[in-house]
Design brief:
Length: 241
């Protein structure tokens, strides 16, 4: 294993550093055991043993395809942190989920990625699970469009050259105040997002609020149906802050 973990530090306590490397790997994207071994550089037996141990503690779970993903305990630990934005968003996400019938998420930008900081999962049926702490690219998806649309164009120029959307699309997102994605980040998945903007700092972007679900349920034009709900949810979060 190299000298990096997700925090960019090595403690010297081998089992801790290896466990952190596994958590960091599955936070980037769901991983099979083979992909986990490739990503972390750990021996297969070590990666499997630690992943199973982390699964026991619900820090790691398995998705429907048997891949390793972040577990529910991560979200439970994250919600214990004193974060005003997350505290304000949690009841709003639950409201958006109940009104839409779809899983709702809140994303913040972190460098060239977006991080899921709060979720309200659909309780039953087919759903798109994005655990708290998941790190996703800013190159695809409706939440990425929102974050880029209200970001610094010069700062994002290199990133946008490899994205799934154009500056013209981002201009449209800014104009209408929401974004939609149809299979852009993941095949078969649609999403709708709106910006959560500060009411006290000149409209600074704080986060993106989203819903996501299968295209067969959201349809090919989900923005027409769900954008008003997402915009209202974003406004509720901003005003409660």
């Amino acid at each position: 294993m190299g000298n990096d973990t997700s925090a960019g530090q090595v403690s010297g306590i081998g089992v801790v550093d290896k466990s952190v490397a596994i958590l960091a790997a599955v936070a980037e994207a769901p991983k099979t055991l083979a992909e986990l071994v490739e990503s972390t550089g750990l021996p297969r037996a070590t990666a499997h043993r630690l992943a199973v141990a982390l699964e026991v503690h619900r820090l790691i779970a398995r998705d429907l395809d048997g891949r390793f993903v972040l577990g529910t305990r991560i979200g439970e630990l994250a919600t214990a942190l004193p974060d005003p934005l997350v505290a304000a968003a949690q009841p709003v996400l639950a409201w958006v989920r109940d009104e839409s019938g779809e899983s709702a998420q809140l994303y913040r930008r972190d460098g060239n990625e977006r991080v899921c900081v709060a979720v309200a999962e659909r309780a039953t049926g087919l759903r798109t699970t994005v655990p708290v702490g998941s790190r996703l690219p800013l190159t695809a998806g409706s939440a990425a469009q929102v974050i880029c649309a209200w970001g610094d164009a010069a700062e994002l120029s290199d990133l946008l050259s490899g994205s799934e959307f154009t500056p013209r699309l981002l201009a449209d997102v800014r104009r209408r105040g929401w974004a939609q994605s149809i299979g852009q980040r993941e095949a078969g998945v649609a999403s709708v997002s709106a910006p959560v903007r500060s009411t006290a700092r000149g409209g600074e972007l704080l986060a993106a609020i989203s819903i996501s679900g299968p295209i067969e349920r959201l349809g090919r034009t989900p923005g027409q149906r769900f954008a008003p709900l997402l915009v209202a949810g974003a406004h509720r979060i901003a005003t409660s802050l």
